[in-house]
Amino acid sequence: MSSLLVISAHAGDFVWRASGAIALATARGERAKVLCLTYGERGESAKAWREGRTLDEIKQLRRTEAANAAEVLGAEIEFLDAGDYPLLENPELVDRIVHVYRDVNPSVVLTHPLADPYNQDHPAAARMALQARVLAQAIGYDAPGDPLGAPPVFFFEPHQPEQCDFKPNVLLDITPVFDTKRKAMECLPAQQHMWDYYTELAKRRGVQLKRNAGPNLGLPHTTMGEAYMRLYPQVTEELA
Ligand SMILES: [Zn+2]
């Protein structure tokens, strides 16, 4: 059975950038798992800090919000609480991610792009996600489960795509699940300014999706999209 693994630096990232893909997977009856390396407690919780909450309160708040969003999407969620701002790369954390790969055995992996001059936690998460994928493929790596195959990796769209060398080469039609994405976004009131921003982005990506699909598919003007960028070549027996 197909399964989706989403590796997210902070608690909110997967919601803005990949929740359409997650909702599509679970609507098909597939397993979807979100792995949040941190809660985004220091770097992406400004509203809660301004309200005078403590670090532990903020972690709990973000955990609850992200868990609610995952529930809306029908996805599993796990938090590694590795600490953000900075999220530091280390072998123990990579090893924990390897264990998740071996458990989920994903057919598709989603994570951050490798560049983000505004947020160093995002590329750190991506580097660890990719390193763990390679280790999970090795039969000699000491972790439970079978060696991983070669699941394709898609980078999800960063907040400032041009500065992150993000050039979409996959446009995913999320029209059937957009209402679910919006509900998932609304589980994160700490970042309420993002709800409309990512709704507008989905509309723009939908326009581009229609343009690239051509008129014959008859996609509606309400088409909504999410943009992705493949890391590895697509393998196919027929060019299409
Ligand atoms: Zn983030």
Automatic annotation (TrEMBL):
Keywords: Zinc. GO terms for molecular function: hydrolase activity, acting on carbon-nitrogen (but not peptide) bonds, in linear amides. GO terms for biological process: glycoside metabolic process. Transmembrane segments: none annotated. It holds the Pfam family PIG-L. This is GlcNAc-PI de-N-acetylase.
